[in-house]
Amino acid sequence: MAVMIPAWVDGVLQPVEKLEAHLKGLRHKAVSVFLVAGGAVLIQRRAMEKYHTPGLWANTCCTHPDWNETSEACAVRRLEEELGIAAVHCAPRGQVEYRAEVGGGMIEHEVVDLFRVDLDARPEVRMNPDEVMAVDWVPLAELRARVAATPEAFTPWLRIYLAEHGAAIFG
Questions:
Q1: Which of 52, 64, 114, 149 could form a cystine bridge with 93, CB 3.0-4.6 A?
Q2: pTM of the entire predicted model
Q3: Measuring CA to CA, which residue among 80, 57, 31, 15 is closest to residue 156?
Q4: How far apart are CA 69 and CA 76, in angstroms?
Q5: Spatial separation of the C-alpha atoms in residues 31 and 95, rounded to whole Å
Q6: Which residues contact 12 (CB under 8 A, 6 or more apart)?
Q7: Is 78 within 8 Å of 96 (Cβ atoms)?
Q8: What pLDDT sits at residue 87?
Q9: How far apart are alpha carbons 155 and 151 in whole angstroms?
């Protein structure tokens, strides 16, 4: 069954099939979550089966809300679906827009609601192998250094978030 996400077509927000939105570079809604615990950020390496940016490192979790789903509900849902992390509070950190080529002729043109989760201790992570192939806990300064040293190992959106929106997310 096709996944329908909120996208703007001719200036009107409507449900559009996710792959179509990426192939046409349609502006669409998204969420990105950054989970921070013990001074480190949880990042994930995308599963090789993902239809774009497989095997690249990304922020804790990112996705598109279902049609008529709130961004916060989506963030909470995807943390549990991708990483088995439940019952957390996703604090809003603003909204950003970016456009980036993600390979295979696809474009992410996203209006992203950013969220941050702050925990005292690192939660147990149960990776969904269809979504995630690895995770790592990385102090922010080290993450920035890794991205600077090997940008090709990281998703375009994570590079954009760190370069342009780090103060909103981590400040």
A1: 114
A2: 0.95
A3: 57
A4: 11
A5: 9
A6: none
A7: no
A8: 87
A9: 8
Task: List the catalytic residue out of 20, 61, 62, 152.
Answer: 62
Nearest to residue 60, comparing CAs of 149, 148, 120, 136?
Answer: 136
Print burial letters for 20-40: b (CB count within 10 Å at least 16), e (below 16): ebbeeebbbbbbbbbbbeeeb
Does residue 110 carry a catalytic annotation? Answer: yes
What helix, strand, coil percent values describe the chain, rounded to 5?
25, 40, 30
Residue 22 has pLDDT above 90, yes or no: yes
The packing angle between helices 156-164 and 140-149, to 10°, is: 120
pLDDT in tens, 67-86: 889 999 999 999 999 999 99
Among 61, 90, 108, 110, the one annotated catalytic = 110
CA distance 124 to 135: 11
- Give the integer Cα–Cα distance in Å for 10 and 26: 10
**Is 19 buried (19+), middle (13-18) or exposed (0-12) by CB count in 10 A?**
middle
